Amino acid sequence: MAKSPRIQDISELANVAPSTVSHVLNGTASISDEVSERILAAARETGYLAKRRRKAAVALLPTVLLAASEANFPKSDRNYVSWTMLNAFRQECRNRSIRLIPQIDPGDKIIPENLVNAIERHKPQGVAIMQDDNYELIDAVHDLDPSIVILSGQDPSMRVDTVSPGNRFAAQMATDYLFRLGHRRIAHVTYGTRLIGQHRKMGFLEAYRESAHRMPPGAIIDVETFRPEVVTRNMLNWLSAQPRPLPFTAFFCAADNVAIGVMAALAEAGIKVPEDVSVLGFDNVESGKRQNPPLSTIHVPMEEIGHVALNLLEEARTLPKNERSARRVELGCRVVVRGTTAGPARSG
Amino acid sequence: MAKSPRIQDISELANVAPSTVSHVLNGTASISDEVSERILAAARETGYLAKRRRKAAVALLPTVLLAASEANFPKSDRNYVSWTMLNAFRQECRNRSIRLIPQIDPGDKIIPENLVNAIERHKPQGVAIMQDDNYELIDAVHDLDPSIVILSGQDPSMRVDTVSPGNRFAAQMATDYLFRLGHRRIAHVTYGTRLIGQHRKMGFLEAYRESAHRMPPGAIIDVETFRPEVVTRNMLNWLSAQPRPLPFTAFFCAADNVAIGVMAALAEAGIKVPEDVSVLGFDNVESGKRQNPPLSTIHVPMEEIGHVALNLLEEARTLPKNERSARRVELGCRVVVRGTTAGPARSG
DNA sequence: CTGAAAGCGCTTACAG
DNA sequence: CTGAAAGCGCTTACAG
């Protein structure tokens, strides 16, 4: 570890006395803007500001409980998206020297009683709940002492903090992007009943609703799972029942894995991407880059969720519960244009 | 100002040596849970933790520019809601010794060029934009050096931070509350084209969509403005065209001022609240409490928006722009039950 | 508005 | 895991 930056390092870098640095950093004397700026720049450069901030948060949150169900707890990078989130969250805890205690319930739900017991036992200052759409859970824990945050989930009753990607807005933005390319007949390929998929679908519908374009009939295509092989089977089925040329010029998929399955089906049916139809994924998964052509997609900042979640837990510790409303945070996503999106075919 | 708390104060309160306090506060030695807890409690009690946190943020944000248009800048508490927000924001800047520079454009829009010039001139570290639905503005400023946050607004392109009440979720929650009271035929009284109203309407529509209940025809009632006198005139008109008993058992209003106007109209038409119909407002403004009966409403934490906005601006200064996604923060609202909501009349 | 110098408060190496 | 003590780093009262 590099030696911890001191005020003296800043004063040398900025060419002023250490006392001047101290004044600027604490607002204890009014120093000229020019010198102030120079000192602040040096303070940032040496890492002094970051160090001070880090220190201020230590001890606010010595222990955090990580609650998940077996089903939602990714054991490998097969479940790439939650894997990325979980690892970034763990790393962030390490950076802040927070002790992280996992509390994993078997099955596919977190059992409220188990979580309450674990809180009783470990007395954590914060609890992070992994993407669980289980609302009795919130009833059971929102009033307890530790601060609560849900990672990649929602709380419609707005009683606990949540952090998730802005799925709905991002899907709307994605659809708008396809509109801007000239597409008018876009299909949305979606699966399952998980909230994430619901929100992405809502964004798609909203984009049509707020545009001047009419959504074509049959534009929502449901597939069974997000596993590419299954999606390919489903889509080949769907394709065989469609007229040619296809009544859609673009497929906006609720996940990259779905998009990869769709691309395989299109290839098998002899339909060219992006010449005949465009395909747009969602998640920005590694394997998307290796498709041929490489998959256009929506980048979702899963690696930032942990950082934001811990900031929320820390902030919550600095304010009394009844003076602080729950925060629902959505993180901005962005379109990543690669090879599978283009303007619609002339005849399409 | 009280004397600044020192480590010694904590050590006395917690009955340990100052060095032990230092270890716990910096994580430099592992101290028993019991002693740790005692020290942390004392550290919080003396205000030491809060002091350290406050100090860590000084100098991150010496100057903030407050951008608004004349029309959006409340000059008195006639515009109670934004007035509350603005004052709390100013107070929060004072607490953090941030110099706040107002930049008010005439008319009802912030002019992007003016804001860019003001940024050039004052070189603020942060810019707070007051509730402006003007998206060219974001194009013009999102890439500049200072961090940007929009107060009580949205950014569908998800490029800058925003803080606003969770209008949509809150309206959905409000409607669910009326469902739970037994109401099935609820009207939503709304006005204008401002985004806030749109979101509240969306929440109302969504509550019906996600419920088992059918939304009755004519359930969206548009009034001209939110001024109670005008609303009363509009509603008397509307009431005169309705059969008795009314086809609705509850009025969910997009603002308290609207609800106050609705109540006056109902009184004039001899319809009793809450016996004949329930009325629910939105905003929790002071004058609602003085109605007869006192108005049930949705509390909107406007006074917290400034705090959250400054936290976002500060946090943005600690991370490089390209490593940090924009945050869209919505604050939780809650139902405040007073005298104007009850179960529907038996015959209703 | 800046800097030299005194001294306060915090950290840390060490003994138990 | 805790505490007494040395000394480092930061703050502040003051001169210019």
UniProtKB/TrEMBL annotation, chains A, B:
Keyword line: DNA-binding, Transcription, Transcription regulation
Gene coding for it: purR_2
Occurrences of domain HTH lacI-type (ranges): 5-59
Highest taxon listed in the record's lineage: Bacteria
Record keyword Transcription regulation present: yes
Name of protein: Purine nucleotide synthesis repressor
Example of a GO MF term: transcription cis-regulatory region binding
InterPro entries xref list: HTH_LacI, LacI/GalR-like_sensor, Lambda_DNA-bd_dom_sf, Peripla_BP_I
Organism annotation: Cognatishimia activa
